[in-house]
Structures are given as structure tokens and as C-alpha cells.
């Protein structure tokens, strides 16, 4: 039951090329946005798409996999947990951020919906 306390599962498309950072320790961190789509019918019965954007952060081996295989447009599944943090921007204003820290990723569809090998 403890794994259900802070557990996130998302399936979506990578929004832009992941930003990869190599830390002094030799560890990698990947940061990227993930778009998830939800469909519903409005009051007139018309199908409407709603898109949510999530910031994903991955460390170590997971970051390496993202760097190699999860480019812009790639459909992936992510499991992880929510992490919140704050920082001061260049103007000294305190900002708050909530991100998904990826524990595992699953490569799903093909990059940019193209079924041919790249």
C-alpha cells in the first residue's frame, strides 16, 4: 500500500527534445514536458480535446534511455512520484514548481507517429 501514497502514471507525447544535463558526479538528468490528452463531449455533443502539460524529470539510467530514445513527439508511459520545490527567479521572486520524478518509462508509439525505423 505504501507505493500508492505518491504514485503517478501518465501516457503522453514528449513535447520538445529533452534537456539533458551531465552533472559533475557523472550522473545524468533529463527534463522534458509531456502532453496528455483527454477527450470529452461538450453540451452540444461535439468531441473536444483537452491537453495537460506535465514537467518530467528523470535521473541516471532512466535519463540515458530518454536521451537515446524519447525525442519530441514520441509516445511514452511514465510512472513516478510528484515532487514540489521552490526557487527564486532572476527578479528575486519566489516560484513554486511541481514535477513528476520518473521512476520508470515505457517507450510506446513511434517517434512523430512514423511507423518506419529511423
User: Which structural category do the helix and sheet elements fall into?
Assistant: mainly beta
Report the C-alpha radius of gyration, rounded: 16 Å
What general outline do the C-alpha atoms trace? globular
User: Would you tell me which CATH topology applies?
Assistant: OB fold (Dihydrolipoamide Acetyltransferase, E2P)
First and last CA, distance: 41 Å
Low-confidence stretches: 114-118
> How much helix, percentage-wise, in residues?
under 10%
CATH H level, superfamily name: Nucleic acid-binding proteins
If strands are numbered along the chain, what order do they take across the biggest sheet? 1-3-4-6-5
List the domain count as a whole number.
Answer: 1
Number of helices in the DSSP assignment: 1
Query: Architecture, CATH level 2?
Result: Beta Barrel
Write a structural description.
The protein has 118 residues and is mainly β. It has one domain: Nucleic acid-binding proteins (OB fold (Dihydrolipoamide Acetyltransferase, E2P), Beta Barrel), CATH 2.40.50.140. It is 8% helix and 56% strand. Strands 1-3-4-6-5 form a 5-stranded mixed beta barrel. The longest helix has 10 residues. The C terminus is likely disordered.
Task: Furnish the topology, listing elements before pairings.
Blueprint lengths: L7 E7 L4 E4 L5 E14 L5 E13 H10 L5 E14 L5 E14 L11
Parallel strand pairs: 4-6
Antiparallel strand pairs: 1-3, 1-5, 2-3, 3-4, 5-6
Structural descriptors:
disordered C terminus; Single-stranded DNA-binding protein; OB fold (Dihydrolipoamide Acetyltransferase, E2P); 118 residues; globular; 56% strand; five-stranded mixed beta barrel; ssDNA-bd; mainly beta; NA-bd_OB-fold; 1 helix
Amino acid at each position: 500500500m505504501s507505493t500508492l501514497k505518491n504514485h503517478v502514471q501518465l501516457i503522453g507525447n514528449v513535447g520538445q527534445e529533452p534537456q539533458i544535463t551531465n552533472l559533475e558526479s557523472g550522473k545524468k538528468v533529463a527534463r522534458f514536458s509531456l502532453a496528455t490528452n483527454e477527450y470529452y463531449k461538450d453540451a452540444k455533443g461535439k468531441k473536444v480535446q483537452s491537453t495537460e502539460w506535465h514537467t518530467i524529470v528523470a535521473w541516471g539510467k532512466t535519463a540515458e534511455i530518454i536521451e537515446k530514445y524519447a525525442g519530441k513527439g514520441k509516445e511514452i508511459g511514465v510512472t513516478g512520484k510528484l515532487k514540489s520545490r521552490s526557487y527564486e527567479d532572476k527578479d528575486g521572486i519566489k516560484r513554486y514548481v511541481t514535477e513528476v520524478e520518473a521512476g520508470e518509462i515505457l517507450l510506446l508509439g513511434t517517434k512523430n507517429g512514423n511507423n518506419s525505423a529511423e
